[in-house]
UniProtKB/TrEMBL annotation, chains A, B:
The keyword Nucleotide-binding applies. This is LAO/AO transport system kinase. It comes from the Bacteria. Its EC number is 2.7.-.-. It is an enzyme of class 2 (transferase). PANTHER family: LAO_AO TRANSPORT SYSTEM ATPASE, LYSINE/ARGININE/ORNITHINE TRANSPORT SYSTEM KINASE. GO terms for molecular function: kinase activity. InterPro entries: GTPase/Isobutyryl-CoA_mutase, GTPase_ArgK, P-loop_NTPase. Keywords: Chaperone, GTP-binding, Hydrolase, Kinase, Nucleotide-binding, Transferase. Belongs to the SIMIBI class G3E GTPase family. ArgK/MeaB subfamily.
Length: 321, 321
């Protein structure tokens, strides 16, 4: 049976979770119908607030996501969750355990949860995730949460595609703030210090605030002050404050024209990933005239250096265009 | 002072570690002289055996690398080590501790150790690592060890560029073999079960051998039987057996024409990464006529879907070629 894209998109927009799931599967499979799907979805996008959550292992990301979903549901919002799954072939069972906590939302039709398993995918997470966000946005979800489960740079890069990025820290996770500082300050719009009932929380919060104050002096023209919210996600403590901080950042984005800029950045990332995947296919697929295998053999035989080989490849691409 | 590439390459080939380090820095910085460097290096490559080591955190990769370096040195071989560093912004101090163990080789001029810190690099590890291997190969190292410290898929992909890939496991690391099986069987040429003095080692080895036997039935025409070597790297136990297994695999690669195929694959990966980085720059850099920002804005404004935008981008690339 041929795929009826218009019908599938209609059903997704009418809130049928199976249609939404099918559309995201098409993204994960890089299905040929994706062009048609994207064209059908695009007019219905631009409504959803996209929130990314990231942080080191053990910080309570899944629990935080789950209680955040509950809080947003209490406000009547429909919430889609994309859990960016571990990208390592060595990941273990604990992460699956985390997933199970989310089952409390399984019976709620206003919540859609999907793990993105894009390991080995050409173009990977940067290719699939923004297109999956587009599906959820068009399907009428008010908020899309992108949560990393893995800890690689690529997962973090994907979370950064959000309108608002939440970085979670917690007391007692190794070097804490110091270890994390290289990466997190430029990523975070909102900091959460979870497990705030644990010893050492005051130190983490103080260090973090010092770091924020110090970095502010470095960034000119930046008027958003990253808030630090204390939570005990497992007991729901601090969650109203987190929701308020998220709204505050959204309002700031709108007021400063930054929302449009971030969404243009996300669109740029999406378009570039699609274009580069196509170019990679043209370069490497011998069935499409890709010359990579033949020039690579010359490089391996030391008859050509890799830059000269890349030049040959690009020239061939141009000649065939 | 302009960079004297010929002199730098000469000094690297004469065993000067500072020249080798400088060449790898040029790779990490994507220095414009890299074309010239690659052309000067290529005639001197093809000698080094490239061995990748990967495995889950806590398995003892750094210790294993260090004792393997000692064993290869005892055979009179010069050894270069590329430690692929954590790609997560949330990585902590324990990994730095691991690095320090390698300092026992610091005074040995037959050993060169370099951490590859390519976070945020356009094209990332797949761009820099094969070029760094090329540097070490041309500089006359007999063996190049690529060790992952991070656990992301991209680090693992890089290790797979080796002639021989070693996957380390150990008893007591969560779900062990079962958790790892999805990824490791297709990666590994040689398995090491490290910490073999720990309880549970027999179970890990048995499970692993069952998995290998089972997978063998699935792969036709594959006559290499992945060995399972027990080691206690911290005490040097099992290291002679590991060295023997590595030599065995190398001999098998040569005998079956597989070494040439793997090296052509590595060259293909290197060339593709160079070409795609160039294409990415042409697409995205407005100073080079990249139209990405303007088409991305149309996508964000729902005036264009992302696939149509990618088509526009690719058409513009063709017109300007």
């Amino acid at each position: 049976m041929p795929l009826d894209v218009a019908d599938l998109v209609d059903r997704a927009r009418n809130g049928q979770p199976r249609a939404v799931a099918r559309l995201i599967s098409l993204v994960e499979d890089a299905h040929p119908a994706l062009r048609e799907v994207a064209a059908a979805l695009t007019p219905h996008t631009g409504h959803a607030r996209v929130i990314g959550l990231t942080g080191p292992p053990g910080v309570g990301k899944s629990t935080s996501t789950s209680v955040l979903v509950s809080a947003l549901r209490a406000e009547g919002k429909r919430v889609g969750v994309l859990a960016i799954d571990p990208s390592s072939p060595f990941s273990g069972g604990a992460l699956l355990g985390d997933r199970i906590r989310m089952t409390e939302h399984a019976s709620d039709s206003g919540v859609f949860i999907r793990s993105m398993a894009t390991r080995g995918h050409l173009g990977g997470l940067s290719w699939a995730t923004p297109q999956a966000v587009r599906v959820l946005d068009a399907a009428g979800f008010d908020v899309v949460l992108i949560e990393t489960v893995g800890v690689g740079q690529s997962e973090v890069d994907v979370v950064r595609l959000a309108d608002t990025t939440v970085v979670l820290l917690a007391p007692g996770l190794g070097d804490g703030v110091q270890a994390a500082k290289a990466g997190v300050l430029e990523i975070a719009d909102v900091f959460v210090v979870n497990k705030a009932d644990r010893e050492g929380v005051d130190t983490v919060v103080r260090d973090l605030k010092q770091l924020i104050a110090f970095a502010r002096r470095e960034i000119r023209g930046e008027s958003w002050r990253q808030p630090v919210v204390r939570t005990v996600a497992a007991r729901g403590e601090g969650v109203p404050e987190l929701v308020k901080a998220l709204s505050g950042h959204h309002d700031w984005l709108v007021a400063h024209g930054e929302l449009a800029r971030r969404r243009a950045d996300r669109a740029a990332s999406e378009v570039a990933a699609i274009a580069l995947r196509e170019l990679r296919a043209r370069l490497t697929d011998p069935h499409r005239g890709g010359h990579l295998p033949s020039v690579a053999k010359k490089v391996a035989d030391q008859a050509l250096d890799p830059y000269a080989a890349a030049d040959e490849l690009l020239a061939a691409l141009r000649d065939e265009a």
